[in-house]
Amino acid sequence: MRHLLLSVTAVTLLAGSSVGAPAPPMSAPTPAEARAFVAKAEKDLAEVSVYANKAEWVYETDITSDTSDLTAKAGAEQTEMATRYAKQAARFDHVKVDDVTRRKLLLLKIGLVLPSPDRPGAAKEMGDIEARMGTLYATGAVTIDGKTLHLEDLEDELAKTRDPAKAKEIWEKWRRVSPPMKADYAKLTALANEGSRGIGFKDTGALWRAGYDMTPDQFAALSDKLWGQVEPFYTNLHCYVRTRLNAKYGDVVQPRTGPIRADLLGNMWAQEWGNIYDVVAPANSPGMGYDLTQQLVAHGYDAPKMVKTAENFYISLGFDPWPKTFWDRSLITRPRDREVQCHASAWDVDNKDDIRLKACIHVNADDFFTVHHELGHNLYQRAYAPQPFLFENGANDGFHEAIGDFAGLNALTPGYLKQLGLIDTVPGPDADIPYLLRQAMDGIAFLPFGLLVDKWRWEVFSGQVTPEHYNDAWWALVLQYQGMVPPGPRPADAFDPGAKNHIATSVPYARYFLARIYEYQFYRAACRQAGWKGPLNRCSVYGDKAVGAKFNKLLAMGQSKPWPEALEAFTGEKDIDASAIADYFAPLNAWLTVQNKGQQCGWKS
Ligand code: ASP
Ligand code: SER
Ligand code: ZN
Q1: How confident is the model at residue 284 (pLDDT cuts 50, 70, 90)?
Q2: Which ligand does the CA of 369 lie closest to?
Q3: According to the model, what pLDDT value does residue 307 have?
């Protein structure tokens, strides 16, 4: 977890000489010097990462002013060291070195999320801001009907309510957590930009877009291209869901045309809509045949059982059981006696085998998927642990997010749920469209959100959007990509982006957009390897050790090679490609087109 999140400060570059000694003549460094530099940087960064990870773990699982100070300090130290090395790496730009050293030099320059300026105290200031914003988000609580609720309880309420007034109340109240973050967010942005320029990037957005084995501009173009491929399908789904919301709530709440009201989709950010599946389920059809949340509850699942179930899926593919320390050290439910950061995350504390999960699990379908997602991160972390430290990461950050999502696609199939004993019978072919619709309500609905979160940050980092326009720019993107509007006018002090975890805690987001595309490529490849002949949505590779062994080839490479090579190792494909997601959902897309006949699909932005 933490070592994906280096934030960095620079100190003045002393070109290889020690302070006080006479300056040596400026000669080009040798390949041997480059290798020695990389070896030292790698050793030092590995060491500081363990200490910073532990400080962050203690903070996130027990938020106090002390733990917050300690993690800010540890993060600042990590930042200072990483920036020094990022800057120094540029000395070797023109030295002829072996491929491994070249790649490590590159990773030293781009492996940072929030670089900081070259001034004493700047890294600490950034660490303090990050801790303040993270704490506001994590400890945010809201009173509804006289009860004080944390985010995951609000999410449950919003998932369940079918009362638009209640939905609006929950949605608006949660967004009161973020106005106090706005000034800090602006300050952090300015500091990170200064830091990014110091290590050779035009702004922090360009640094983030540099992590994909192509130029930042090429990555922006690639995201747009992928979006263009899936957008018609999204519009089709949007159109169908809007019609059903209109039928349920009437024209005043949800008009038949134009954007959708963002609080009606059963999710705090309208990023996944599966929770309102009952509202959109096909009429006159037997339906999916079961409700996973109800089945989990009926079968007595609790948090440990949810995690064990996910672990078991990976074990079935031939992977080792999770270590004992995982069970001793993980946090899987919200403790009653202290504040914690509940947003689910997977940790690799010592870059060896001290993997952990931190989540506040509720027994429901969303969290069933999330545990598979998080353990997918752990699987990757363990598989690449033998690599040198600088290669201990995903082939790109989208890969890291896609591993567990791929497992989750298998784990949600009715055939597999029956193997688990969660359902008694596997529904027949009539259930395929309902099932695909349920899947699309999460997987397809997510795509525009997955894209727009960082579109907004790219605009903020580039200066195109200034603090007084933060909120308007956010809603312009929500309207353009998601086709949604807030349930009412937003207050003048609103800072709605900050009410999303990854903005409050500075986690880049394009990774999730990519993951939603990769996961179907992984899944299609796995099902082909397994010789699956039926409809793709019914395929599960549970128990297939040959698929597991091949998957491990991708995992074990970590970040040692450009990502197309990792993709090829498992799928035989070299490019990210929306055809797999299109294949998976093709029957649903055709069905939606029929349902939408006579509707005026789309919206004006
Ligand atoms: N940590 C995950 C996400 O941010 C899981 C989640 O909470 O949905 O990717
Ligand atoms: N886990 C990510 C989020 O919570 C993507 O689903 O936003
Ligand atoms: Zn994740």
Answers
A1: confident
A2: 1
A3: 98
Element (H, E) at 593: helix 579-595
Residue 338 banded pLDDT, cuts 50, 70, 90: very high
Q: How far is the CA of 344 from the centre of ligand 1 (A)?
A: 5
C-beta 384 within 6 A of ligand 2 = no
Q: At 27, is the pLDDT very low, low, confident or very high (cuts 50, 70, 90)?
A: confident
Q: Percentage helix, strand, coil, to 5, in the chain?
A: 60, 5, 35
pLDDT at 11: 27
Check residue 482 and give left, alpha or beta (phi > 0: left; psi -120 to 50: alpha).
alpha
The closest residue, in CA terms, to atom 4 on ligand 1 is: 344
Kindly list the catalytic residues.
Answer: 343-344, 373-374, 377, 401, 502, 512
- The answer to whether 52 and 350 have CB atoms below 8 angstroms apart is no
- Spatial separation of the C-alpha atoms in residues 79 and 128, rounded to whole Å: 13
pLDDT in tens, 137-191: 999 999 999 999 999 999 999 999 999 999 999 999 999 999 999 999 999 999 9
Residue 11 Cα to ligand 1 middle (Å): 34
Q: Which tokens in the block code for residue 30?
A: 């040798």
| Cα gap 529→548, rounded to integer Å | 10
Report yes or no: 419 and 542 within 8 Å, Cβ to Cβ.
yes
Q: Select from 342, 362, 370 the residue to mutate for testing ligand 1; criterion: most ligand atoms less than 8 Å from CB.
A: 370
- DSSP conformational letter for 497: G
Pairing mode, if any, of strands 7-9 and 114-116?
A: parallel
The type of residue at 65 is S
Give the mean pLDDT of the chain.
95
Query: Of the candidates 401, 149, 397, which has an alpha carbon nearest to the alpha carbon of residue 268?
Result: 149
Residue 359 Cβ contacting ligand 1 at under 6 Å: no
CA separation for the pair 525, 536 (Å, rounded): 11
Model confidence at 13, pLDDT cuts 50, 70, 90, reads very low
Dist CA 256 CA 568 (whole Å): 45
pLDDT per residue as tens digits for the range 129-140 = 999 999 999 999
Question: Distance (Å, rounded) from C-alpha 117 to C-alpha 190?
Answer: 10
| Backbone φ and ψ of 466, nearest 5° | -100, 165
Question: From the centroid of its chain, how far is CA 18?
Answer: 42
Give the β-pairing of 355-358 and 345-348: antiparallel
Q: What is the pLDDT of residue 4?
A: 41
Interatomic CA distance for residues 271 and 264, integer angstroms: 11
pLDDT in tens, 215-225: 999 999 999 99
Pairing outcome for strands 260-261 and 147-150: unpaired
Residue appearing with tokens 């029957």: 587
Tokens of 83: 């920036």
